[in-house]
Amino acid sequence: MRVHPLVFLAAMLALPAQAAAQAAAQAAAQAAAPDAERQARHVLNRIAYGPAPGDVARVRQMGVKRYIDGQLEPAALAYPAALAERLAALELPNMSAGAAMAQFAELRREVRSEEPGAKQRRAEGYRKMALEAQEARLLRAIYSPRQLEEVMVDFWYNHFNVFAGKGSARAMVASYERDAIRPHVFGSFRALLGASAKHPAMLVYLDNQLSRAGKLNENYARELMELHTLGVDGGYTQKDVTELARMLTGWSFAQRALMRKDEGFRFDARSHDQGPKTWLGSAVAQRGQAEGEFALDVLARLPSTARHISHKLAQYFVHDAPLAALVGRMARTFQSSDGDIRAVLRTLLASEEFMAPASIGAKFKTPYQYVVSAARAGGAPPGNVRPLVQSLKQLGMPLYGCATPNGYKNAEAAWLNPGALTRRVVFATAAGARLDAALLDADLGAAISPRTRALVAANPQPLRAAMLLGSPDFMQR
């Protein structure tokens, strides 16, 4: 009896235990593959968004170590001409934060008029701004040869999350990603921390531009310690949060200066709390803006920060529950290199834990990783990625759409549930209809277990690509 693909997929994906068993089967299948192929697929699934056609053979030929080294130094990897042209044609992602804010302000002014259609024009303008930012991110993630760079943009954006739905932040998320995140994904953690702290998008999102002496807002100070640096168990108190917020008063920006002169961060000495402060057990000298800079210096170098960042990176790249020994080695590299992110990544990617067979298939793809990997597996040239924007919304992970400061989670528990899996089945059915199943199957190779391959082969040819994309095998990385 021939089983309809949706029934087949529902049976495979309905229970987490079944998905876990399928992941084990996938790991066994890959472990049985030649070692060079197994390592190539594993690396492409972890430091890239899965293999595009030809990638496995290319990585096997050049060697995994050389591929990793190249990804850690992405400046030598040129964008394909078609990708560069598509990105250059987008308006918002190429605007400065000031120009984007000016456009946003004009849209808000229009709606105050009584002219018919003003509200509709504003809504369309907002939608265009959001779509262009998301389009630029997806185009790079799918088609850029700098795959690890794109993976790290995803990691760090979620770590320093800014929600596009918060006021004028919607106009500045593209600038925030481009100017505060991208330049530092492999660089100094302290530089990344400072760039995030001073960007107007973060100042708006966590309200630090509203914080002043006598009218304190602790949102940014709290998340700076709890999420961005020390971690929830980092050894600080509520008093430390309050004192840090006082140290950061005056860290703001002026909207008019931003729009007219593209002047972003500004320290406003008049709103700074000049009183004595004691933070993390020590008295803080009254030094204006330098108080905040001092706080960032300290937070970037504390052992708790090294452990927190190392744990998050190990969880993202290796396992939802990374081994303490790996995290410890990474944390020591973090401290000895003064927060050199590239050095920490080298420690991680050269580790036995990263390349261990037990790591294969141990990570469940987030909706973003799933959608991007499906687009890459299809191998189509740069086209219209806007349907993928809608797919991410339907899968519960709209780009720049996480309202909470902790960003989207990357662990299996956040994404593996029957409702979410059903929505992935719907996506796989639509995406698979446009693909050649035989070519997709050949490219996925040992990533698909014999059990899944046999079940797919028992169904009609037009249904097979959807079944491959909707299988638990493909949902693991």
TrEMBL record:
* InterPro entries named in the record: DUF1800
* Signal peptide bounds: 1-19
Query: What keywords is this UniProt entry annotated with?
Result: Signal
Domain of life, per the record?
A: Bacteria
Q: Does the keyword Signal apply?
A: yes
Is the keyword Signal in the record? yes
UniProt-recorded name of the protein: DUF1800 domain-containing protein
Q: Which organism is it from?
A: Massilia glaciei
